[in-house]
Write a structure and sequence with these properties.
eleven-stranded mixed β-sheet, 11 helices, nine-stranded antiparallel β-sheet, alpha+beta, about 650 residues, about 20% helix
Length: about 650
């Protein structure tokens, strides 16, 4: 039973905390790699004082996650409770007519799907663009799972902060081994070649193939066999040849070797004993080396499922595998996603669509905003020349005629479905505004009593721009603000750099809002840095993957970043900075991978521990006889018999010698 470990907080279905649970036993937390999902189970005495507080749809909160109780198995002595990770907001966000995201990054796609749920995307290392097209009813959670398979990536779900981190691959290779007789209890292997191919013919929309980029309309992979077994893969969601080649290459990589999946039961000795914490530590997604004499196996595998018993670490188990979903499974999903072109056409006006960040709903919002701005403009113009009663009457007449004009020109939501891109949307709105302006001019002329009533009402629907200038110490100080449904941009002092509030953060651009001009983003996970379209890295906080109780400040360099340096300007107006301390990838600033210095290193009498020198260095103890005094005939008169020199990695670390008399 629980003996003073982590307590569990209980919340009712209204999210009010009603108690702290102790006295439970057999608490287990299962984490799954492919979905990022978790499950909590535990047992509690059937006659326990808090048994009435443990109900279905109540919440259990740990230090790191929140779960929803879904099942209760009542017993004579103990009840068993099973709870799932709380992603209710994502499961409750339903798209009854389908969901579509056309050639977008996974961040853009999921932020679009999560809109209004309170959930956000945190760290995201995936920059490629893909299409998600679900024709039938789906939830935001379904969209997340579809994205993980389509973009071929993995996620970590933080249910307390409602944040999801997206990575190409979770985990590391820490050098951990699973060995029979030590920590490997049981192993089984499944292997087949039912879906084995060595050549793939990928075909995208309008018949695009790799040929115009590679010179061939197929991709080969002979890693296992030189025989040619061809497969034709057609998916009309691919409109970009590079994306088609990337995913086809990944698919044939999996298809061109036998499908193998190991299931192993492993004892988690790293958490059970300090002796093994450095050599047998592993986490979800980590690569481990499997060694089995019975199956004659020594292979690299990944941890795909972990079941942890926090109060009894020796009971922890894992499942390992080197296989993602089989190609047949992925192909089946893609076939399901691509079916029903007729359904797609009929649903186009109601399905939630992300296409160049312009949706049908957003177009309607823009038209409504245009109408409201016209009404406001009419009000301001008329009030200068009419009594309030007359003005109100005229506005109502103008408003009704404007609405009628808009209704006649753009009758239904479906009529706007054809204008899906940003440029088309702007063009569409401009036409609408021009028409509205013309009608207003015509309507107001009939009420004019002065030539001033013919003043033009000029609107710009996609943005409201304001210029405020004032003199400060005889220097011009100006601020420019531009805003619409997507962003708020700020520039000042005639500086063309834009600060943009977007995606829950503040972004800084160099001159124009383009990915290649993005320089920095500050959000809840830290300060992120970009250069020439590349995400370079961030400064922020994190927690150690081996123990999330250890928090810290991190300087994270992304894979696309080549170096991280501390540099100085040696002289005034030097024009460049000299590197003093630098981490460099191979063949970047330096030819070799590692930490490099550009100045002397003064340790101030502190110790350098565990050094190793290029080319090696001996580690050995040498015993010797030290001559202390010689006779005149050349013989030794006195000596010390127990002289000793001890070397470690080529450094003399201990010396025993005799002083001459």
């Amino acid at each position: 039973m629980d003996l003073g470990g982590e307590a569990l907080q209980i919340f009712n279905d209204k999210k009010k905390r009603i108690g702290i649970l102790s006295g439970f036993k057999d608490r287990a937390i299962t984490t799954t790699l492919d979905s990022g999902d978790k499950e909590l189970s535990f047992s509690y005495p059937a006659s326990g004082t808090m048994v009435d507080m443990l109900k279905e749809e109540y919440y259990i909160r740990t230090k790191t996650d929140e779960f929803v109780i879904k099942a209760i198995e009542k017993g004579e002595q103990f009840n068993k409770y099973t709870a799932v990770l709380n992603v209710e907001e994502l499961e409750g966000e339903t798209f009854p007519y389908g969901f579509e995201s056309n050639e977008q990054t996974i961040r853009a796609c999921l932020e679009f799907a999560f809109e209004g749920t309170g959930w956000h995307i945190g760290t995201c290392t995936i920059s490629k663009k893909r299409t998600i097209d679900e024709q039938e009813s789906v939830t935001a959670w379904d969209v997340l799972q579809k994205c993980l398979s389509t973009y071929r990536c993995e996620c970590i779900i933080h249910s307390l902060t409602k944040t999801i981190d997206i990575y190409d691959r979770i985990g590391n290779d820490r050098g951990c081994y699973f060995i029979e007789g030590l920590n490997l209890r049981k192993i089984s292997l499944k292997s087949d070649t039912y879906d084995f191919y060595t050549r793939i013919y990928p075909i995208g929309k309008d018949g695009i193939t790799p040929k115009w980029l590679t010179g061939k309309d197929y991709i080969d992979n002979f890693q296992y066999s030189s025989k040619i077994k061809a497969y034709t893969w057609k998916d009309e969601r691919y409109t970009n040849t590079t994306s088609l080649i990337e995913d086809a290459t990944a698919k044939i990589e999996e298809m061109s070797r036998p499908y193998k999946a190991y299931t192993a039961e492993v004892i988690d000795l790293a958490k059970a004993s300090e002796e093994y914490k450095d050599i047998l530590l592993y986490g979800i997604g980590d690569t481990v080396t499997l060694v089995s004499k019975k199956t004659k196996t020594k292979e690299k595998q990944r941890v795909v499922k972990i079941t942890e018993y926090p109060e009894s670490p020796k009971k922890n188990t894992v499942e390992i595998s080197n296989a993602r979903k089989t190609f047949a499974e992925i192909q089946k999903e893609e076939t399901e996603a691509a079916k029903g072109e007729a359904i797609s056409i009929s649903n186009r006006t109601t399905k939630k669509i992300l296409e160049n960040y312009s949706t049908t709903e957003e177009v309607e919002t823009k038209i409504t905003a245009s109408k409201e701005e016209v009404e406001l403009g009419v009000l301001h113009t008329l009030e200068s020349y009419y009594e309030k009663t007359e003005t109100d009457a005229l506005i109502e007449i103008a408003k009704g005629e404007i609405e009628l004009g808009v209704s006649q020109k753009y009758q239904t939501k479906s009529a706007m479905g054809e204008y899906s891109t940003t440029e088309e949307t702007k063009s569409f709105i401009d036409i609408a505004v021009d028409g509205i302006e013309l009608e207003i001019s015509e309507k107001l002329e009939s009420y004019s009593t002065t030539s001033e009533m013919n003043a033009a009402i000029k609107l710009k629907t996609d943005a409201i721009e304001k210029e405020v200038s004032k003199k400060v110490n005889n220097s011009e100080f100006g601020t420019k603000i531009s805003q619409n449904a997507y962003y708020v941009r700020v520039a000042w002092n005639n500086n063309s750099n834009y600060i943009q509030f977007e995606n829950g953060g503040i972004s800084v651009y160099d001159g124009s809002v383009e990915q290649s001009k993005k320089r920095a983003v500050f959000n809840y996970s830290g300060e992120h840095f970009y250069r020439d379209g590349y995400y370079v890295g961030k400064i922020g906080t994190n927690q150690w993957s081996g123990n999330n109780a250890h928090k810290g400040l991190v300087f994270d360099l992304e894979y696309t970043g080549k170096y991280m340096a501390f540099a100085q300007e040696k002289t005034e107006n030097a024009g460049s900075y000299t590197t003093m301390l630098c981490f460099s990838r191979e063949n970047s600033i330096y030819d070799t991978y590692g930490i490099h210095l550009g100045c002397d290193l003064d340790m101030h009498n502190y110790t350098i521990k565990n050094p190793k020198f290029e080319g090696g260095g001996i580690t050995r103890t040498i015993n010797y006889v030290q001559v202390l005094k010689m006779n005149s005939d050349g013989t030794v008169a006195e000596w010390g018999a127990n002289g000793k020199m001890t070397f470690k990695n080529g450094i003399l670390v201990d010396l025993t010698y005799y002083n001459k008399s």
